[in-house]
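Hi F.,

I've been meaning to write this up properly since the lab meeting, where we talked about keeping a consistent format for the predictions we share between groups. The idea is simple: the sequence comes first, exactly as it goes in, then the structure tokens exactly as they come out, then a line or two of notes. No screenshots and no reformatting. I'm using this chain as the first example so we have something concrete to point to.
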Amino acid sequence: MPHASEDSFFKKSTKEDGSAKMEANIDFKGKLILAGLFALEDPARPEVPPAVRMCHDAGVRVIMVTGDHKLTAQAIARDIGILTSDKDRLNENLVVSGDELSDKLAQERANPNNKPDEVEGKVVDWVADKVERYPYMCFARTSPEQKYIIVSACQQAGYIVAVTGDGVNDSPAMKKADIGIAMGIEGTDVAKDASDMILLDDNFASIVIGIREGRLIFDNLKKSIAYTLSSNIPEILPFLLFIVTMIPLPLSTVLILAIDLGTDMVPAISMAYETMEADLMLRKPRDARVDRLVTGRLISYSYFQIGVVQAIAAMFVWFTVWNDYGLNAAPLFGKANLWGFKNAVKDANFQPGQTHPAFSTDGACLTMIANEDFSNPKCYNTALTDELITQAKKQYDL
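Output, unedited:
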């Protein structure tokens, strides 16, 4: 085709409103020959569709917001699973273009009943209603202002919103989101500054791995805390029984320190290395306002279920050991004072909690001593005189 000036290809015409427009000045009909078609495709990464399915299983909604054409966005979203292909659920899909958002914004601005500061809120309410009604959504041909409105609508619908982006146009939405995620390879400096997190490999599947690891850490922390709290009831119950029923102190403070600083620390730390539960990525997201790290349910489970069972089992073992040494449970009650066991004779050379050297430590003798039976001379040393026996009977603190 011979060279022609710009004016020979186009001609100016005037619109109804008086503005100028350009129109083609050449009739190409019958003068061109079709040589072929050339198409470009930018397919999604192969790991994206499985990651999107994993998000759906975990109760995480994925909404695509793009600047592509509506039909292009719809095709990509259906290909990677953001829009469902289930014929029975096609009515749950919704694709909203930026033109629809612009028309809604213009409609609200034209409404004389709306104040200027209420216009954006009306559009946010409209989008939030769509987000709640349609579980599968994507937005096409959106502007930075519209992306900001979409994020605000999702937050208003009760979602914790994470926004990914790589350009300057994504910055307002990333700043508004609860978590802004910038692309580390292709992301601009503006997007990285506006984000809370930078994705080093620009891979959506890495976000899903992050969600899984976060759930695993939260799960293991709850296990560790529950394990640590469960030992409090078994440790305090022996002291309460000692004070209330006057049994010999089953658990000393040294033993409690040995339990807390010795045997409890290693199992509690080992909880951090637990692998994930089979249903970890099948659970719905927790409500951050209610399901915190330590809840009433966890305290009830640790204290009043596991803790009580441990305390009963420990006291049962303690009474069993006493019984093996010839002292059944009944004589133990009321046979202790603030010094410890009552077989301590108080004299000038005696310290609280010590056993008088005159008494035998044989199990049968301990039973007789606890019952104030001094009739068996085998339970005493040869140096035990009648005077000391009389003193023991008098000073045995009941």
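Notes:
DSSP finds 15 helices and ten strands in the chain.
The first strand starts at residue 10 and ends at 14.

If this format works for you, I'll send the rest the same way.

G.
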